[in-house]
Amino acid sequence: MNEKKVVITYKNGPLENAKRALSGLDLGKIKGASVLIKPNIGRAAHAGQGINTHPLAIAGAIEVLKDAGASYIAIGESPIVGVNTMVAFEKAGIQDIAERYGCELIDLNAKKFVNKEIPGSRILGFTKICQDIFEFDFILSLPVAKCHMHTGVTLSIKNMKGCLWKHEKVRYHQLEYRPGETYPEKTLDSAISDLATVLLPHISLIDGYIGMEGLGPSGGEPVTSDFAVASWNPVGADVYACLMMGIDPPDIPHLKIISERMGFSIDPAFYDVVSDGDYREHVVSYARPSSTLSVKYPHVVVHDCDSCSACQSTLMLFLRRFKDDMTQYLLDDEKFHIGIGKGLDGSIKKGTILVGNCTKLIKDLGVFVPGCPPVPTRIYEAVTGKEPEENEPEVT
Ligand code: SF4
Fold it and tell me: Could you give the CA distance from residue 159 to residue 200 in angstroms, rounded to a whole number?
């Protein structure tokens, strides 16, 4: 098996892109084997919004796997907490595809979890993985290409986070490094790299038909880029999907850490690329999550000093969703004060909502919301003392 091989297709629509990319790989091992397709159906959203994997990309993968002689094919997902897996499958058009091709749909949360030890981990120590996935010979990761406000992108490796059991996914956003240990990357990036040491997809197929730019995984804008990338090498697939999105692979921390820890290459030149013509002519540059936060809500004051884009994006999502609920939590100047970043100091207005671990040192001056970054619903809970009506964390 040539694990340097990366196949890129474009301009054929989701079905044909997926078929051509996947069938460009040597699939001899698939004959007689069971395959779990792990798409990204993290939310109950219709196809074509860049949030979930396109159903026709999944159809394309199934057709190729059947042709290759797979003995059993299922589609499994553990979406974000608060989303019903089967409802998400139905809304995303995956149930129709499963019925058309006679594939099982699996709610990965329905069974128990396997508690995997992670020797030499940076931060996790262990992680809870849905039991079902270990019953298959092969896992095919089939994400939609998206920018991600916390991790830069979410592609075939990050997509494996959707194999984590229930709330385990949320835990990844609430971690802190062990005392005395520190790394330059965010804790979430280290956690994804820890997960990769025990769980990587066997095959990666990335659906770039309609992806998401900006504030992914759900708050960005759909972008039609009409490509697919396939490889037996998950890092190779993610590297080339990044390139197709106009993103430099070393800019993605989890790819960089995984390459350093596990000996994968993020150098595009390492891979043998098969594509119909020069793939560089088909690059569609995805807008990255913005690095500066502009807030246009008159009653909100944001104190931002040396924050990073992850906290800024969290804050933006929080304000987008909850700003109208905050009018009863104004301070004596009739403003809602919220602060992010490690540069905030004692001059901050007393009572400010202090978001993120970077503000921990001044936490006694206001309402502290831990996390690096915290999820928007945690801010809501800290401010109001109650859960939002829809219990739906904004991260996956
Ligand atoms: S707490 Fe927020 S600003 Fe600080 S490193 Fe984490 S995400 Fe960035």
Answer: 10
